[in-house]
UniProtKB/TrEMBL annotation, chain A:
NCBIfam families cross-referenced by the UniProt entry: urea_trans_UrtC
Gene source species: Hansschlegelia plantiphila
Domain of life of the native organism: Bacteria
Region forming the signal peptide: none
GO molecular function, a single term: branched-chain amino acid transmembrane transporter activity
Protein name as it appears in the record: Urea ABC transporter permease subunit UrtC
Keyword hit for Ligase: no
TrEMBL record, chain B:
Membrane-crossing segments per the record: 7-37, 57-81, 93-115, 144-161, 190-216, 223-243, 255-276
Name of protein: Urea ABC transporter permease subunit UrtB
Membrane topology annotation: Multi-pass membrane protein
Cellular component, GO annotation: plasma membrane
Organism: Hansschlegelia plantiphila
Subcellular location: Cell membrane
Keyword Disulfide bond assigned: no
UniProt keyword terms in alphabetical order: Amino-acid transport, Cell membrane, Membrane, Transmembrane, Transmembrane helix, Transport
Record-level GO BP terms: amino acid transport
Gene Ontology molecular function, alphabetical: transmembrane transporter activity
Annotated family: Belongs to the binding-protein-dependent transport system permease family. LivHM subfamily.
Entry keyword ATP-binding: no
First-listed, main subcellular location of the protein, grouped into a coarse class: membrane
From TrEMBL, chain C:
InterPro entries hit by this protein: AmiC_PBP1, Peripla_BP_I, TAT_signal
Gene3D superfamilies for this protein: 3.40.50.2300
One Pfam family cited in the UniProt record for this chain: Peripla_BP_5
Signal peptide: 1-32
Record's protein name: ABC transporter substrate-binding protein
Organism: Hansschlegelia plantiphila
Keywords: Signal
MF terms (GO), sorted A to Z: amide binding
PROSITE patterns for this protein: TAT (PS51318)
Coiled coil: none
Amino acid sequence: MGNIYHNKTAQWIVYAVFFAILAVIPIKIDDSFLLNQLATYGVYGMLALSISLCWGFGGILNLGQGIAFGLGAYGMAMTMQMQSQDASNPIPPFMLNNSLDHLPLLWQPFQNTTAGLILSVAVPTLFCAVFGGIMFRARVSGPFFAIMTLAMLSAFYTIIIDRQPYTGGVNGLTPPSAFQFAGVEVDPYSPTAYWVVFCFLMGATVVAKLITQSSFGLVTQAIRDDAERVRFLGYSVAGYETVIYTVAGLIAAIAGCCWVMLVQYVSPAQLDVSFSLSMVIWAAIGGRHSLLGSIFGAFIIQGAQSYLGDTFLATWLLILGGFFIIVVRFLPNGLASLLESGLGLLAAKRRSSSAAVERNGDANPMPAE
Amino acid sequence: MDLGSLLNALILGVSIASIWLIAALGLTIIYGTAGVINMAHGELIMLGAYSSYMLQFYLGLPYLLCIPASFFIVAFVGLVLERGLIRYLYNRPLDTLLATYGVSLVLMQGVRLIFGSDPKYIAAPAAFSSNISLGFASISTFRVVILGVTALLVFGLWLLFYKTRFGVQVRAVMQNKEMAASFGINSGRIYMLTFALGAGLAGVAGSLFGVLAIVLPTMGASYVVQAFLMVVVGGGSLAGSVAASGATGELQSVLAFFTNDTFARFIIFVLIVVFLRFRPQGLFAQAGARR
Amino acid sequence: MQFTRRNLLKTTAAASVAIAAPHLWLPSEAHAATLKKGEPIKVGLLFSLTGALAVPEEDSTLVLQYAFDEINKNGGVNGVPVEPVIVDAKSDFNVYSEKTKELILREKVIALFGCYTSASRKAILPTVMQRDHLLYYPTCYEGAECTQNTICTGPLANQHSQDLIPFMVEKFGKKVFFVGSNYVWPKESNKNAKVWLEKAGGELLGEEYIPLGSSEFGPVLGKIRDAKPDFIFSTVVGASDIAFHKQFKQEGFKVDSMPIASLTTGEIETRAMGADFGAGHFLSAPYFQTLDNPTNQKFVEGFLKSKYGKNGTTHYNMEETYLSAYVFKAGLEKAAAAVGVENVTPRSIRDNSGGIRIEDAVSPEGLIWIDENNFNTWLKPKIGQCQADGTFKIVKAADKQVAPDPYSIYPDAGTCTKDGLKGPDGKVRKNVI
């Protein structure tokens, strides 16, 4: 059987257990702060998942995942903002302060909640498809693509700050009341909000997992390991890269929507370079070749930031940075690779006589998970 | 709009370009030679500013001596960094990017712990706080100093790379590491020295920026993305970075003259993306560079 | 084990829905922070102690701790001591939002003191409003907000420039150039300044905004050189402000012929840039360290000598923060008298805070009081000129308190009342932000 870490059935069982535990939390815990906080971590988990999918399985390092996340978040915030405007008072207050006397065209579709939600997800996804399509067709890859996403992220960041009448500038958007859907107000501190995020996280994880196990996913992993060879085999490398990049963008956009539902505000800080880099850190520490590992990475880092950050006040960034260096230097595939080699050793011991050893070792390009 | 102001904007563009270039110089060397994307470059700039501050405040060193001193201090930091971390990662370019980001967090927070987060201040000779008027245009003396230092460094680097034995070795390693090694060049040593040199250049940039603006633990973050874009647009060569900084500096100044600063930046970012779409290898790619 | 994957999925999904069902539509726990007998009064201090915003905000935390120590030493509030719960927002807006929830929902504080930038205030206000809580926002801001959950002890945009602009026009000339950081507060402040400029017969030559945190003032100074104004009106903030003053001098501008009139460049900033870059410029603020009155002398001496005075200055922002502690004390006492100690909620403190006066004996800047309608502060703006040693010489002080008006430049939006923004149509809208 070899290393149980690579056993698909075992993997699915771990996924089931993981989500079952997450599902039980609101029943066991009656702490609205904790629920909201865990739901926020769930959003971060989705972001780490999207990075893992795109980088760990597609080989595309994306330092600009904040674009999809931020655009999704802005769309959601616009939708929620318009929910609190009515016919007698159709324009958000910040626009009046910026001397707009009518609702700009950009905002009009968001008057309708359904249209707003669709746009919040569709616009970032479409952006990823177009941007990725153009770039990958020009065979931009590796560090170059990373730098381009960084430039694009900075471009969005600056334009949102500059177009204050439409975007609220640095202050961002702060919808004054909670999100309402089909007549129900989703209190961000309620189990309901937690469930919404939970469902999206689970859905995204399952879809991502299925993608990585499909033949499509195998091709993207082959591209990650050697794009030239795959191209010679007749695959459209650009096509595969665009799709995986777009799916990751879609997940990030949904995460953006969930995030605004939970915290009721969005600002250009969501498109800040450091935020996008921290998403990459989550995935790298958790293990970019493992979807679940990346999600764990986000939970661990953000949890530590919330709970250890105040204890180690001044030294927190020092610890985080140092930890990150150590992981990159000694554990390039993150904490998940510890588990992998641990289980591998176990399997090797059990069948120490024969060929099981060959599967072991982190240097080999690895199969899904 | 009159011609004089436009001319002024153009002259200012040269100054902005020199600032962008000096921030990008060290990165160009490091990226061009070793292919390392050093995210801690901004923090090395910051270290340069703090070492100047320290030398001036505690030892009373005159400012003009602080600049070369910062070069050596930060070059030493770079040397330690290369020996302790970067050299293990040369065949993993994306991982160097991540590891150096970790380094940048550590440096930033370390400096904050030592010096506190309140801004520090480097005093420059009074002669630098004046203005040179050319009749139709004027520019501050300190900007001319930066321009001069940048030009000097570019010239020095050109000499180093194209007129010395060390330069030949660096270029050989750049083009083909294995082949160079078979000719007896110690590529590990070359990488180490170029990394230290690049870090030292960041130190010089830092001691200049500290006078122009402010010395803060976070000051490096604003330079690193910009510096990167210059290097990538330039293609990782010295001439490329000079041309890229020149073009963007002028664009920034002229666009800011017609619109505003924020919007000018937006346009530059978009233009860079569009440019790289058509020339991913940058302006002057080094022919046949293999790492 | 072919079937496992899909079936497992279905079962998991079904199971989670089943578990979820009973909880789905339950409202989250009813929330009300109240005071408990025998326990100290908990208040939250939400400032950044690390990161880029730590420079002004750490001082705010220190001065509040000093104020609460002082209050506790003098018998607390109705005999009960105040216990500040200190958190670090790490200069990260996401953390501001998270910490606000932690303070409100977990620590169950009775009031929050926090934020320096408008962006962080905006980030936490939805949570504060949603829980009907109370935020003391102790610094200057742009106004154009009307919530039922904030009390502000700093000057509004309309109070800031009312004296400064006419003073500068009279002293230096009619022509002015506006420079600001590119965000809401400078833009709103400049709109207010334009109103006063027009009244004073001045002329606006240009208006430029610099990206937040940018240190490249070359293009702006070039435009200023072309325009040749008599003075510059600056709303540049933070590190950029220091770069601006330094480059102003490096580019050969002379402070005597074209001074900068600022709303932000106080004692902390002049110390950071080096006094020779700050000397000669003007600042409008309700408080300066050099204010000559016994209360201020006591405050400056007491604070600098205490364990909180390590940074060595007092600053307008710190004094406004200090006052907010006393506004809280008075509000809590009034609320307790009105509804009974055990029924005090954050909202009842706010509703009882209108008209609270902090007298000369307590307030270093002199008498102030809280407006009964919009819950901002009536105060006397003063103008100071920076001296060679980095302190300010007061050159003009308003002769009486100026009314705060968050909607002074938007008369069409309506007026801010106790219960919300009263529009021209007579409708009152709550929580306008």
